[in-house]
Amino acid sequence: MHSALLSKSNKLAGGSVVSNGGLLYAEDLVQETPVSSNGRAEDLVQETPASSTVRKTRGRTLMQRIWSLPANLKIECGLNVRGQPIGKSGQTFKRWLGTFCLSHALCPLVPVAWARVPHKNKVDCWIEIETLIDTNKRSRGFQKDIARSGPISFAQTADSMAKESGQAVERAALFAKVYCTKDGSPVSTTVKDKIDKMKEILNNGCTLQVERHEGILWAKDDAFAQVMGAERSGRVRGVGFGPTPSGRSGSNLPCYTLTPPSSTKTTHRMTSLENSHQSLRDELAQSKQKHKEEIVELHAKHKEQIAEALAEA
Hints:
The structure is a single chain. By secondary structure, this protein is mainly alpha-helical. The protein folds into three domains: 2-110, no CATH class; 118-143; 154-258, no CATH class. It contains ten helices and seven strands. The strands form three sheets. A three-stranded mixed sheet has the order 1-3-2.
């Protein structure tokens, strides 16, 4: 697995990053805090104090434990073959990036004090927010089926599936995973029909053959593409953010081979003929054995007849 080093910024760490410093794995940091009510473990999140009138909330994700690390410590971020963050370290990396907007020294998206913001800017901001909300509502209305993976990316889900099965995952199998509930039920009848079609294509032998044990397998004519249709220009569905069609050209082209259904049908036919041939051979062997038994029985009967004839004479 490829790896990348995630270090603190010089402005917030108070010093330069030492390249030959210690190495700290993110797995040692992600699960150190208690799990919150929604089942996610965070690094020192702010929580609203519980009271009889104020509802206790989870608060912002601050990742204070990451920001407070010494400048000579680094976290190893796991990446898959596509350069997508995976594993617990990848989840920590994405959450840490989300805290940049809270830092006035790096990417100040939050004002120091809301009261200092001019009234005109507040009005303009509110109008933009309302417009964006309406646009997102309309866009969400066109999206009939929603993935159930939540904050877990497709790359992370595929990585977990690959570790369980020991081989890379086709995007058809990944689609069936993320678009089903915890009990394995599809999110809608439309999704169920698509999953059934993909499984039928895979069962007929239209699978991707590649010697890889991680990542997401895809091709322009795989089971996913046959059901979902052609890709849009420059897009690859079902593999998460990052991969593009141009990323598979030249030296980056994986050794994918698609087993056509015709060859599978031929194999089934040959197997059926072989079974029929074996049955005929078994029947022939039984006939030969029965014929031998009949011959032995006739010889024995003939001897008895000769013995009786000699006795009468």
